[in-house]
Write a structure and sequence with these properties.
Layout (H helix, E strand, L loop, with lengths): L13 H15 L7 H15 L4 H24 L2 H4 L1 H27 L5
Amino acid sequence: MSETDLAAFDPKAPGDRTVMQLLYGLHTLAWFSGGVFAVIALVINYLRRDGEADALYVAHHNYMIRTFWWTLLWLVLLSPLWLLLVLPGFVAYGIVWLWYLYRCIRGWLRFNKHQLV
């Protein structure tokens, strides 16, 4: 499947790119705020996505939204491991954290290259 260079289409204002950079930053740093940054970014993702016409921006908003909800689902499903012993819960949450970090960094890098995720 070939990649489409979406930078060749309707250019966005620098402020729009800055907002997306900020959203990726908030999602990436979410674990250090106990998830507060992710919830703030999620609300902004939903609000900005509704009025967005650019396919690249819509795709990245959707990507961040999906990443948040899948992470939350995995955290809830894996939470009983904390009741067994601390170590299995810690390991499971560590794996989820690495997956979340990977998704944020991957999406951020692809956004900077003007690529869909």
